[in-house]
Each structure stands twice: as C-alpha cells, then as structure tokens.
Write a structure and sequence with these properties.
The chain is α/β, with parallel strands linked by helices and 356 residues long. 44% of the residues lie in helices and 17% in strands. The strands form 3 sheets. The chain has a 7-stranded parallel β-sheet with strand order 3-2-1-4-5-6-10, sandwiched between helices. The chain starts with a strand and ends with a helix. Bound molecules: nicotinamide-adenine-dinucleotide (NAD) and 2'deoxy-thymidine-5'-diphospho-alpha-D-glucose (DAU). Nicotinamide-adenine-dinucleotide (NAD) binds next to helix 1, strand 2, helix 4, strand 5 and strand 7.
Length: 356
C-alpha cells in the first residue's frame, strides 16, 4: 500500500501546488484536509478527481475528532501543515479568525498528531514527521543594510498574521522539545505562481491589468520582499520532509529581493508584451499609489544557506523566468480567475480599497 501523507490546506495556493506534484509522484497517497474558506478552491485539485493517489476531505483542522480519525484510517506517515489564514491585510481588519485557525488549529493538530505518534511502533515513530509550513514574517522587518534573516534571527512579528504564525511556530517547537514529536518547520519568503488568490500583490496586479483597473501600490512602493516561485517552495518542502532533521527549522527563500514598485512595473511591461491588443497599454498608467498598510514591514530577506548546505536544495527559477510563467498561466486560465472573483471577493476589494 502507498505511503499516506496528510496535507492540511491543500486546496489553497501553495497547498494545491504541493498536492498536485506529490500525488503525481508514484508511491504516495495524499489525503487533503481543507475547510474550503474563501481562499480554498477544490477545483485547484480537479485533475486528481477519481485518482487512487488522492483523497479530498472537507473539514476544519480544529475538528479534533476528524483529524484523529484521518490519522488512523489512512495510517498517516507524515503531516504537512499548510492550513492557515494567510493574508496580512485581512488580519488587520479581522484578526480573530487568524488566532483560531493559525494558533488554535495548529494546537489541535499537534495534540492529535502527538497522541497518534505515541501509539505507533518504534519504526513508525522514527519515520513519522510533522512539517509545519511557516513564514519569514515571524522575524519582523529589516533595515536597508541589515543581513538577511537566518534561523537564529529573534522572532519579532509585527502584524496579527505574523504573530499568529509565530505562536504556531513556538507550539511546534515545544511539542518537539517536550514530547519528542518529530517536527520540522520551514520559514519561507513571499511565493508567487499558479493558483494564488488575487488578493495578494502579484495576482491582483495581473487581474487588474487584465481588466484595465487601478493597480494599488501601498505607500511609496519601496517596501522590499524576497520572491520565490511556488514550485521551488514545494520542492523545498519535499526536500525538508525527506532529509530534514527533526526539531530543526529551515529558512526558504529565492535570494530575489525586489521593491514592490519594481515587481508591479515588471508585470506591467510583460502584460504590454503578452497582451499586445490590450486597450490598457501601457499598463503602467494603471498604477495608483494608495494609503499604506498599517504597520507595513519595510523589508524581508531570507538567508536560505542552511537548507542549501545541509539538504542540497536550491531554487530553479529566477524572478524574471518565474514571473513570465506566472503571467502566462493566468492568461491561459481566465476561467479559473473568473471562478474565484465572486461576490465575496468583490466585497473584500470594496472594503479594502474603496477609501484608500
Ligand atoms: P492560502 O490562503 O492560499 O490557503 C490556505 C488554505 O487553508 C485554504 O485552502 C483554506 O481553505 C485552508 N484553511 C484555512 N483555514 C482552515 C481550517 N481551519 N481548516 C482547514 N483548512 C483551512 O494560503 P497559502 O498562501 O497557500 O499559504 C499556505 C501556508 O504557507 C500558510 O500556512 C502560510 O502561512 C504559509 N506561507 C505562505 C507564503 C506565501 O507567500 N503565500 C509564504 C510563506 C509561508
Ligand atoms: O513573506 C511571506 C508572506 O508573504 C506570507 O507569509 C503571507 O502569507 C503572504 O501573504 C505574503 O505576505 P505579504 O504581506 O508580503 O504579501 P502581499 O502580497 O499581501 O503584499 C506584498 C507586498 O505588496 C507588501 O509589501 C504589501 C504590498 N501590497 C499588497 C497589496 C495586496 C501593495 O502595495 N498593494 C496591494 O494591493
């Protein structure tokens, strides 16, 4: 029988990219547990419908009975935990769900994973893994000349989202230290690529450019993020799952720092090239500087040398190649974009941008 892994949040952006590639690899059965919040989309996994390599379960990671039953029924060998509320702006407008899912949900999963793990044979215990997918935002904000975040950078989260992820990281650490649960934590920089919900900077810019709508850039546009193509993140997660040392944390990043305005300008230039008949050319004319995000972190940069040195991982895409692929994917998946831009999405855009 194939080895089974439980993937939480596998219908979201990074989770679905991970599930699609993992279920395609032979010998792994993936059980996806996803609540299907506004950010989850079961159609992301449509190509796996009917596949014996994949089982989809709609449910909440806080439902301990459900988690307990999935771990036992499928004889789970590893948990890969993506499920979270992930958008910083939403955490500013409504932090409660972030505490519930990111802190309470991670706690529930850890409790059930611990009990399950304790019941395994010695071999099962040795090989079991709980991989917690986290973010570089737990480290706070860097000045222009500060060195990039390492695994030893002190935690200094600044948004409710970052604080909730930092809390979950601490819980994961404690379950390893106290109970011996074989945990792994990855702290990754900003991802982009197929299936990203168009509330985040890159897909929002592509969508608005396509529709001839204003492209909102917060503040002076000079905040810096370190961008990584989602496939490279998924590859890092597979590598950490296979080779990572229990109890360790690994930073993941693309060594690709860019100011937001440069990211937006690049997308606009590529849209000019890839949609030559667009009435919105030059797309740069759509850029609109708007009121800044409260508490907006100025700069993130990730030092991923531990992952490269110890586990041999390195990204395959650079920003130029990855962003072109990403735009081409959105242009060839307009039906996907149409399907996610629902009434609820329009309500969010109105609440977030109308008065900026
Ligand atoms: P996403 O918002 O696109 O997807 C989150 C998924 O979790 C959705 O499918 C949603 O339905 C599901 N979910 C939410 N609450 C749930 C619950 N209570 N029970 C079960 N499922 C639930 O997020 P993403 O961008 O794919 O991020 C995935 C993970 O990676 C998150 O933990 C995030 O913190 C982390 N991360 C994201 C980035 C990034 O740039 N997007 C970078 C580093 C780390
Ligand atoms: O660093 C990793 C994090 O990256 C992940 O943990 C988060 O889940 C993910 O959402 C992302 O957080 P950011 O806040 O950096 O991503 P976002 O796409 O929301 O914003 C990227 C930058 O662009 C940020 O500096 C804010 C800015 N921005 C964002 C939006 C939505 C704009 O200027 N305009 C916008 O409309």
């Amino acid at each position: 029988m194939a080895r089974s892994i439980l993937v939480t949040g596998g219908a979201g952006f990074i989770g679905s990219n991970f599930v699609l590639r993992t279920a395609a690899a032979s010998g792994v059965h993936v059980v996806t547990l996803d609540k299907l919040t506004y950010a989850g989309n079961v159609h992301n996994l449509a190509t796996l419908r009917g596949s014996s390599e994949h089982t989809f379960v709609q449910g909440d990671i806080q439902d301990r009975e459900l988690v307990r039953s999935l771990l036992r029924t499928y004889d789970i060998a590893a948990v890969v935990h993506f499920a979270a509320e992930s958008h910083v702006d939403r955490s500013i407008l409504g932090p409660e769900e972030f505490i519930r899912t990111n802190v309470g949900g991670t706690f529930a999963l850890l409790e059930e994973a611990k009990t399950y793990w304790q019941s395994l044979s010695a071999d099962g215990k040795n090989s079991f893994r709980f991989l917690h997918v986290s973010t570089d935002e737990v480290y706070g904000s860097l000045g222009p000349n500060d060195p990039a975040f390492t695994e030893n950078t002190p935690y200094a989260p600044n948004s409710p989202y970052a604080a909730s992820k930092a809390s979950s990281d601490h819980l994961v650490r404690a379950y390893h230290h106290t109970y011996g649960l074989p945990t792994l934590t990855s702290n990754c920089s900003n991802n982009y690529g197929p299936y990203q919900f168009p509330e985040k900077l890159i897909p929002l810019t592509i969508l608005n450019a396509l529709n001839g709508k204003a492209i909102p850039v917060y503040g002076d546009g000079k905040n810096v993020r370190d961008w990584l193509y989602v496939e490279d993140h998924c590859d890092a997660i597979s590598t950490i799952l296979k080779l990572g040392k229990p109890g360790e944390t690994y930073n993941v990043g693309g060594s690709s720092e860019k100011a937001n305005i440069d990211v937006v300008n690049t997308i606009c230039e590529l849209m000019d090239e890839l949609v030559p008949g667009s009435p919105s050319r030059p797309h740069k004319n759509l850029i609109k500087f708007v009121t800044d995000r409260p508490g907006h972190d100025r700069r993130y940069a990730v030092d991923a040398s531990k992952l490269r040195r110890e586990l041999g991982w390195q990204p395959q895409e650079n920003f130029r190649s990855g962003i072109r692929k990403t735009i081409e994917w959105y242009l060839s998946h307009k039906e996907w974009l149409d399907s996610v831009v629902s009434g609820a999405y329009k309500d969010w855009i109105a609440a977030q941008y109308a008065t900026r």
